[in-house]
Design goal:
The model has no long low-confidence stretch (mean pLDDT about 90). Strand 4 and strand 5 form a beta hairpin. The chain has a single domain, classed as OB fold (Dihydrolipoamide Acetyltransferase, E2P) (Beta Barrel). It is mainly β. About 0% of the residues lie in helices and about 55% in strands. A 5-stranded mixed β-barrel has the order 1-2-3-5-4.
Length: about 70
């Protein structure tokens, strides 16, 4: 079962996301904050506390993100 559509939501990286693996992003959902396993596109790595925008939800607790442009 998938969460509500998370595409476009902006969160904060809580565990750095390397170019070749997973990290974690915290999103505000359902009146609270929840952690999601996160991957980036291509060769992009995101550091802890970076802002990330959800590009796609690939599983119930897994998302694809990119750096937020603001």
């Amino acid at each position: 079962m998938m969460d509500d559509d998370l595409t476009g939501m902006v969160g904060r990286v809580s565990i750095p996301i390397p170019t070749d693996g997973a990290g974690e992003v915290i999103l505000s959902v359902r009146g609270g904050s929840e952690a999601f396993t996160a991957y980036t596109q291509g060769n992009e790595a995101l550091t802890k506390n970076a802002r990330a925008v959800v590009v796609e939800q690939t599983g119930p607790r897994t998302i694809l993100v990119t750096a937020a442009g603001y």
